[in-house]
Amino acid sequence: MASHNLLLLPGDGIGPEIMEEVKKVISWFNANGGTDFTTEEGLVGGSAYDAHGQSISEEDMAKAMSADAVIFGAVGGPKWDDVPYDVRPEAGLLRLRKDMELFANLRPAICYPALADASSLKKDVIEGLDILIVRELTGGVYFGEPKEITDLGNGQKRGVDTQVYDTYEIERISKVAFELARTRNNKVCSMEKRNVMKSGVLWNEVVTQTHKNGFEDVTLEHMLADAGGMQLVRWPKQFDVIVTDNLFGDMLSDVAAMLTGSLGMLPSASLGAPDAKTGKRKALYEPVHGSAPDIAGTGAANPIAMIASFGMALRYSFEMVEAADLLDKAIANTLDKGLRTKDIAAGGETTVNTTEMGEAIIAELD
Ligand code: NAI
Ligand code: MG
Prior knowledge:
This protein is α/β, with parallel strands linked by helices. The chain folds into two domains: 1-110 and 263-366, Isopropylmalate Dehydrogenase, CATH 3.40.718.10; 130-258, Isopropylmalate Dehydrogenase, CATH 3.40.718. The chain is 39% helix and 23% strand. The protein contains twelve helices and 14 strands. Helix 1 (15-32) packs across helix 10 and helix 10 runs antiparallel to helix 11. The longest helix is centred in the first third of the chain and has 18 residues, at 15-32. It starts with a strand and ends with a helix. Magnesium ion (MG) is lined by residues 250, 254.
């Protein structure tokens, strides 16, 4: 079995607490799952700032660039409110995303049977839900120029953001979506607003063309993004993979994520382009939630989003589908047994702390 190098960046707040549980999972797979992961650890965010005044050091950046995958905890918090903007904790994560060119953000929305009652939607709408949002992460209106507020001189100001997409950006994100769909239910829905946006017209055109160039075995449909938002809430199970731009993806992935429950449950992956020689993608895996400073140090953090993010690494960076399925099953079984961290407890179940939840998942793996 080939050896894979993981860079662990716990960060600050609850980041280090939930990373401890992932380390146990990694050790479990090395001991019992036939994997050979080597790990290195680095500092990012507040922990890096406290140690050396930067949100991530050049040395750790270099490690991230050469790692087979980065496993990232969380960063940020009021403790660093007054540090300069470019070295604030969140800057470390943005630097990683930018330098590693992580253009494809994957956010699954999976309904664990035991939590089907926890959604704000009716049980039959979300029971068995398993969809994947693929959001373009490095282009679009968050980055396009001009981006400014100008003074019009008549007591008025003008705020401008610009949505820009080039062919190659749309092509590479749609390829990721088609390739992932092939590992799932073979269906992609592309969302834009071609009815009112030129970038939407191009988006639609390029996705359609990419589909023709080698992905015709995958079913492709198109939906206007606002209608897509409505359909996500009405009947989310109609979707398999959704591919969309940075702005719509930001909103739609939050909607999709919340169909199924708590922030403490939601993993994510961010992928770069395949290396020209090896074909391997740079990748960073992190929970969707932040550093939860309000509960840091209390043992209340739910480690599932973090552990499931490692599960996504198994699936998407290392093609260890069986191992990933096993880990997902261990999480589902743990929940089936009624174990809950506080954030997902509805009353009547056994409330456990971070370590106990991690160990229960290990026991299920056993
Ligand atoms: P947050 O996600 O840290 O917390 C929101 C709420 O959810 C809090 O009440 C928290 O206790 C709870 N929560 C979050 N994760 C949980 C878990 N695993 N288990 C149990 N409860 C959990 O978002 P918030 O409070 O808006 O931001 C806190 C800090 O985190 C800020 O500095 C923010 O910038 C940063 N942040 C960092 C992110 C990252 O590292 N990728 C993402 C989002 C926010
Ligand atoms: Mg967002």
